[in-house]
Design brief:
Helix content: under 10%
Strand content: over 45%
Radius of gyration: 14 Å
């Protein structure tokens, strides 16, 4: 069973940093493309950062300059480095990935990020 296993969420003070990880489990197919999304209470899920065509990266306006998406092909993983966190970044963060060859899309289980003093 293919899963995206997320880790790295937690409680952090405003201005702090967190690094989210997302690792493919149960498949030898590599990540073709992917991204990070978040959903705050009472709001729709929104994209935070994602890989575009040719390996380019795209960020939501609220994430530009503070968040960095990256990947490790050897570990078949995606990462989201979040700096200068704000209370409005509080949400459940989900990773999303499309695997090579199959073209199947998967979602992680979600990890809670809470920014509060």
């Amino acid at each position: 069973q293919v899963q995206l296993v997320e880790s790295g969420g937690g409680l952090v003070q405003p201005g702090g940093s967190l690094r989210l990880s997302c690792v493919v489990s149960g498949s030898s197919f590599r990540i073709y493309t992917g991204g990070w999304y978040r959903q705050a209470p009472g709001k729709q899920r929104e994209v935070v950062a994602a890989f575009g065509s040719g390996g380019s990266t795209n960020y939501a306006g609220s994430a530009k300059g503070r968040f960095t998406i990256s990947r490790d092909n050897g570990k078949n993983a995606l990462y989201l480095q979040m700096n200068s966190l704000k209370p409005e970044d509080t949400a459940v963060y989900y990773c999303n990935a499309v695997l090579t060859w199959t073209g199947n899309e998967y979602w992680g289980q979600g990890t809670q990020v809470t920014v509060s003093s």
